Automatic annotation (TrEMBL):
Active site: E200
Domain Adenosine deaminase: residue ranges: 12-325
Protein name in the entry: Adenine deaminase
Co-factor requirement: Zn(2+)
Known function: Catalyzes the hydrolytic deamination of adenine to hypoxanthine. Plays an important role in the purine salvage pathway and in nitrogen catabolism.
SUPFAM superfamilies, alphabetized: Metallo-dependent hydrolases
Keywords per UniProt: Hydrolase, Metal-binding, Nucleotide metabolism, Zinc
Residues the UniProt record annotates as site (Important for catalytic activity): H221
GO molecular function: adenine deaminase activity; zinc ion binding
Source organism superkingdom: Bacteria
UniProt keyword Metal-binding, yes or no: yes
Length: 338
């Protein structure tokens, strides 16, 4: 497969913050629209790409949910995930922990089974087809009710052999982690791993709450921890992994320009940072592109880049396959920068 992304940094890495619905490239969106008889309110891929100008998280989410209308069948979800895995593999991703948003599909009349079975067609053969191991993480939409999240968790019980953990995403401000206390307790009782978006647009207190109330093992984004030195100290002490997404932060205007991104300061503070792509089709780059961008714009050294890659495997949910984790970590140490 040739893509403009193939040249991006092949340093072996795990991707820990990736919404599969956010990998829907305009070309595939139009192909699926035609296949499913869905009319998109854009003339062509160029016109659609022009809509990728975001003011904030909500303006992105509006388009992100609108375009999901083209995803209807198992094969659609399989094609979506396979396209992501091919691109990720070309950029050095060896292991991907992939988020999906079940409620965004079930509320459109697409069954949870269709989504999971479809994604599994791609994930189940990902090692053979792409050389990428995978895990699947089901996210709850935090701007929907806690009852809806609990119903989704219950509906997912037949599929728990394929789902490693739960996450929390969508519009953050006004939807604090505590809203989902019972859902996360139930998820923990089912043996699911727990992560949550916190401190992307929301305040540092949401990060603390995600740790203390939801019991999360990683914080997705966590960027705004930098406003609270005591919280930074805690995150360093407890070695809580943060799944940062630098290009996403620029596109959603969490930071003005990439040169202002706090990643170097976060690493200097001793935080366990990882670099990820979030919604690469919308934010201008996949995992390797994010690494390239922080290297060229923030001047990160090879040691720092290797640290980010090492952190990604250390923070991944590979406890059931420590041998694999060791193999990946050895690949990081053996990598020679061009
Ligand atoms: N859903 C997809 N991408 C997201 C992001 N960056 N923040 C919150 N929810 C999301
Ligand atoms: Zn995200």
């Amino acid at each position: 497969m040739t893509s403009p992304y193939d040249a991006s940094m092949p340093l072996p890495k795990a991707e820990l913050h990736l919404h599969v619905e956010g990998t829907l490239e305009p070309e595939l969106a139009f192909e699926l629209a035609a296949r499913n008889g869905v009319r998109l309110p854009y003339g062509d891929t160029d016109e659609l790409r022009k809509a990728y100008q975001f003011e904030d998280l909500q303006s992105f989410l509006n388009l992100y949910y609108e375009l999901m209308a083209v995803l209807r069948t198992e094969q659609d979800f399989a094609d979506l995930a396979n396209a992501y895995l091919a691109r990720a593999a070309a950029q050095g991703v060896r292991h991907a922990e992939i988020f999906f948003d079940p409620q965004a599909h079930t509320k459109r009349g697409v069954e949870l089974g269709t989504v999971v079975e479809g994604l599994w067609r791609a994930l189940g053969s990902s090692e053979a087809n792409h050389g990428v191991s995978t895990r699947l993480i089901m996210c709850f939409l935090r701007d929907d009710s806690a009852e809806s999240a609990m119903e989704t968790l219950r509906a997912a019980e037949p599929y728990l052999d394929r789902i490693t953990g739960v996450g929390l995403d969508s519009a953050e401000v006004g939807h604090p982690p505590v809203k989902f206390r019972e859902v996360y307790e139930a998820a923990a009782a089912l043996g699911l791993r727990r992560v949550a978006h916190a401190g992307e647009e929301g305040p540092p207190a949401y990060i603390t709450e995600a740790l203390d109330v939801l019991g999360v093992e990683r914080v997705d984004h966590g960027l705004r921890c930098m406003e609270d030195p005591a919280l930074v100290e805690r995150l360093v002490r407890e070695r809580v992994p943060l799944t940062l997404c630098p290009l996403s932060n620029v596109r959603l205007r969490t930071v003005d320009v990439l040169a202002d991104h706090p990643l170097p300061a976060m690493l200097d503070a001793g935080l366990m940072c990882t670099v990820n792509s979030d919604d690469p089709a919308y934010f201008g780059g996949y995992a390797g592109d994010n690494f390239d961008a922080v290297r060229s714009t923030l001047g990160l050294s090879e040691d720092r880049l290797r640290e980010l890659a090492r952190n990604s495997f250390a923070a991944s949910f590979l406890e059931d396959d420590e041998e694999r984790r060791e193999r990946y970590l050895a690949e990081v140490e053996a990598y020679e920068f061009p």
